[in-house]
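Researcher: First entry.
Model:
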Amino acid sequence: MKRLLLVRHGESVWNATRRLQGQADIPLSERGQDQVRALAPLVARLAPDLVLTSDLQRARQSATLLGHPKARLQPLLREISVGDWTGESIDALDPGLYQGWREGSHVPEGGESWAAFSARTGRAVDEAQAEGQATVLMVCHGGVIRALLDRLAGLAPRHILPVGPARLTVLGFRNGLARLEALNVTPGGLSLDAPDSTPTAWPCVLQPAQARRSLISCCSTRIARASRSAAGVSTFATGDPSMQPEQAGIPPRDASAGQRLQPPRAANTHPAELGLPGV
C-alpha cells in the first residue's frame, strides 16, 4: 500500500445534536448526505484500488454516496465504544472527563480503552496492506482516523485537530514509514472544526482577533513537532507558506529524500493539486 485515504462519514443525526454515538448505529442526516456527495468527486480523482467501510450504517451510507455501494465491510473500522456515554449529550458531560477521553486517557464505564481501540484499527490496516493494492480508501469514523494517525504517524490524540464529518485525511507510505500528506480536507479547503469538538479539545489557545493564518500555522507546528518526536516518522512542512520550516521548529530537509518538504494543499481537482506526491 502506497497511500491510505481516510474519510470520516458525513454528519449523522446524533452529530447534529451533539450526542455521543460510539458504536450506536445512527444514520446520516440530510446535511450529512449532502456533505458526502460534495466530497465524492475529490475522492474519485484519487482513484482508490480497494474500498473498505465500517459496518455501521452512517459509514456504509457514506461509502455508497462516495460511489462505492459494494465497498467491503470491515468491522474492525467501527468507532470506539463509549460505553455508558452512548447517547449522552456532549455538553452535559464533565468537561475534564470528556477532554481526557478525547486524549485517550479516560475510559467511560463499559467503554473501549484507547490502547484496545488503536490495536483493533491497526489490524484493519495490516489486513489492507496484505492485499497489495496501491491506494486504499477507508470510510470510517473520527475516532478511527485519530487512532490511525496516532498508531501510524505518531500523532498523539491531543495533538490532532478534530476530524470533521465528510473530511479527507491522507497518509502516504514510503520505505515502511507513514507520512501525513493531507488532513481534514473538504472540497472547499481545510476544515478546523467538528461537531463533537469542544473549546478545550485543542491545546492551542488563540485570541478571537488573531487571524486564520495564525491558527493554521499554530496547528501545523504542533502536529509537526509531535510527528518529529516519533521515532522513524518523517515530518512535514508547516501549513503557512510564509513561514520558513526553521521558524516552525521543523528540519529544513527530509532526511529520507534529501529534499525540502512542501505543505499539502487542499483542492478538488487532481491529486497533485492536493500536494500529494505521485504514487
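Researcher: Second entry.
Model:
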Amino acid sequence: MTNLSEQSDKDVTPHKESNDDKGNQASYKNVKPEKKPNAEPENPLREQK
C-alpha cells in the first residue's frame, strides 16, 4: 500500500511537469503551424521584416 502511495506521488510530479510542458508546447504548436510554411520562409520572413 505504501508503494502505491509513493508511486502515485511520483506519478503526479511528472504529470504536473508534463502539464506545464504541454501548456508551453501548446504555444509552440500554435507558432509551429503558422511557421509550418518553412518551405517558403523567405515569404513570411520578408513579410515580418
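Model: Note on the second entry: The chain has two helices and no strands.
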